[in-house]
Design brief:
heterodimer; A: alpha+beta; 6-stranded antiparallel beta sheet; 24 strands; 20% strand; B: alpha/beta; 6-stranded mixed beta sheet; 8 helices; 31% helix; globular
Chain lengths: 755, 244
Amino acid sequence: MTAIPAAGGGPITLVAPRAVQAPYRADGRRRPISFWLRWLVIVCVVPAWAVVALVMALSYDRERGTLRQSTAIMARALMQTVDADIATVVGALQALATSPLLANDDLPAFHAQAQKLQRMLDIGHIVLADPSRRQLVNTVKPFGEPLPTTAYSERLEQLFVTGKPAISDLFSGAVVDQRLVAVAVPVILQGTIAFNLGMGIRPEHFLSILKPQQLPAGWVVSILDAKGTIVARTHDPEKFVGRSGPPQLLRRMAEGSESVIDTETQEGIPVFAAFSRSTFSGWTVAIGVPRANLTADLRQSIWFSIAIAATVLILGALAANALSRRISGSIRGLRAPALALASGGPLSIAPSDTEEVAEVGEALVAASRLLAQRAEDREKAQAAEQQAAVADRTATRFRAFLDAAPNAVIVSRADGTISFANQRASTAFGYAASDLLGQSIERLIPERLRAGHSAHLKGFFLAPGAQPTGTAPALFARRKDGSEFPAEISLSRIELEGVPKVMAVIRDLTEQKRLEAYVETSRLQMISSARLSALGTMAGGIAHEVNNPLAVIHALASDLADDQGGSEQVRQDAGRIVQYADRIDGIVKSLLYLARDGAGDPFTAASLAGIVARALDLLAARFRQHSVTLTVGPIDPGLRIVCREVQISQIVSNLLQNAFDAVQEGSGDRWVRLEVAAEAGRVILSVVDSGGGVPPGVQARIMEPFFTTKPVGKGTGLGLSLSKKIAEEHGGTLTLGERDGHTCFTLSLPSRSKD
Amino acid sequence: MQLSDATILLVDDEPYLLEIFRMWFERHARRVVTAENGKLALEQAAEHRPDLIVSDVRMPVMDGIEMVRRLKAAGTSSAGIVFVSGYTDLSQRDCFDLGVEAMLPKPLRRASLMATVQRCLLDGEERWRERPAEECQGTLSARFESLPAAQREGLIAFGSGGFCIRSGFAAAPGQAIGLDIAFDDGGQALKGQGIVRWLQPGEQQVGVEISYVDDENRGWVAALAARNESRSFIPRSSLGVQSL
């Protein structure tokens, strides 16, 4: 116990400051100031950019709306122009219809007058026809030439019913080989409609109305008649005139007189189309504006905006870089002073034009002064603390060593009071951690051993020249709950601060004893197995040698016994020989059987009577020879147990053998009794002998693996400990008891009654 | 075949015993031949083509095991084998697998020897016609999808006189048991009675000798036994052909 190291002896070594490490963010990544400034630029520019994009989108929408509206207006205006043109023709025709030449039936003169009007308008030719469609005058032909019936549709026929001017759809002329549109007015003579006066107009005429309108390139304007057939078209008229308009347009036209829709032109160009239908003529003007025109403008605006935004962003980034260099330069200037602060050297701070940096610089100077002051204070305090810590650590270490020791350690004074107990001592004896301190060590010793211990302890202290170490006589120790455990106790005398004490080291032997018992059982099992194996080999040899001659004897004798020609006496004797040969055969078979190691056999249902008979086969002769009376109680021949038959036979034979040995020592009447009883699912087999019983000291231990009362080499068979183990493997028990003052071994096994 | 039509080869190194056996058989068999060891027995077998061989196991020059092994390997003799032995450390499992049909201990009674020999001479159809008087202890029941499937999966293997089945069935060797082994596919079944010859609980293997088959299935079972390729009486494993 003198191993406590001297405290505070060595020089105090201060740990050198570690290399300066910048604090890390949780993810360990650092960013320069320029990074954050660039972020600032992005944060400022991007929302502005988003607003611009939004405004652009809105203006696009508005522009689109405006364009659609103005296109619709234009469509209406164009329709009105067309209407006005037709109205002019109607007016001219109506004027001609009132010509007195018609009333006078002077058709040649009328022909000349009509030709004059035709020349003046120069948009088509004039035809006069009667209600039966017969052409009377046609300005294309000289008067008097034969004329066909008119070709125009029934739409113009209405005129004879309504008496109002009418406009036809596109049709092919009867005289002029061309597509035409006809405008006609009624000629009323004496209150009735006598003729119709019409003008066949070439579709090109309407094209000429559209031409001067100065439409933007790409815009397509079509004029459609009441049936939806294209009469005129600004683009490719020769290809499309006479065809039907786009189906989508026709569908919408049927729904209303004016609208703006998204559709495709005949050429497949995506457009939005505005159309307007005239109530006067039933015709429609449609204007198609390519959607590409509109989006082209938008795209241009977008590119322009992107260019501006990018420029602003780049300029912002450059500015951010320049600023960040300036700021970080200032901050980095504090690096050297901060390091100097840690090492305790003098500080020199460069002046900075950034206010915050300058403030930190001043703070560093102040900190430097404070640190120097504190270091001085700490050095003084540390020296004091360290001295205390060394003492404390030594005590803790000492305790830890003893707590870690594999055995219980207890230190007591000369009067037996415990002054120290390690943790294992508390657990081994079942006490709480500090409960042992101050207790008398006697509490840890079983009462029956206390007297001896007390004397021994006294002697241990007083005996002059006594050994400094010794072993206490106690082989058992006592736990708090009164239970005992086998222990090995070694004592050492120590002197702590001038007081003599005893240190006891107590080793709990419970586990060791258990292990030893296990090893011993295994050893016995192996010995038994080896013995049985050797016995088996020998028995096999005997069987072979005996059985061959026995077979001859048996066969000859049985032939004689069966020989009807022989004398009665011979047959009787021969029968007896057969009987005895059978008995020898039975004994040999039992010997072979019992010499087997049945530990690996399967469990089968076996007759208990058979098991007992087999044991008796081998032992009955010996009992007779030594005048020991062997009585076997009645056994139900149907009684069966599920077991390893060989092993149970071996137990029974072992119990009989033990009983035989036991009665040898006694005098007077020598007997052994074997009884079998069946009760409540168990079979009880008892072997009682006339011996004097087992002494009480032996009773408790007779089944232990190490125990034998027989001289070395005399023990045969399994031995009681193995018999007990086998019984337990069968779910049964083997116990020692007493019956009427005699020794009684009882084997109890689970039974299975005969099915 | 009846004993009166049969040629019997007797093998034993004990000359008196051989003489007694010869006397016993000469009264009933058509012809009796003897040999004093396995080697001589092989020569006699080649010459006289016996229908059945009754042999000792432990003999000088060549023992019974070696003799049977050579006889089976040569494939020239179809004689049944009955072992008669004072003591053998050979397991029943190995002997039946080798093709031995019965094992009798010495000493033995004439009646039991004659009965065993007569039974071994009968073919399956006749041998399994009479239900034995012994009382059955339990019934070994099994149900398989089909015989080929059960054989392929190593669940059952047939020999000429019995079968080895993968089962945890518990019984004492020598015990008579009922048999109820059904094969679903063809409606065939092995229903009757048998004798447990050996058990190996660790391997879950049981060797059973068939002693009786009911009228309905006898023909099928006899054909199955006659087809026996392993030449075993009871195969040593349900996994199929494995020789000692």
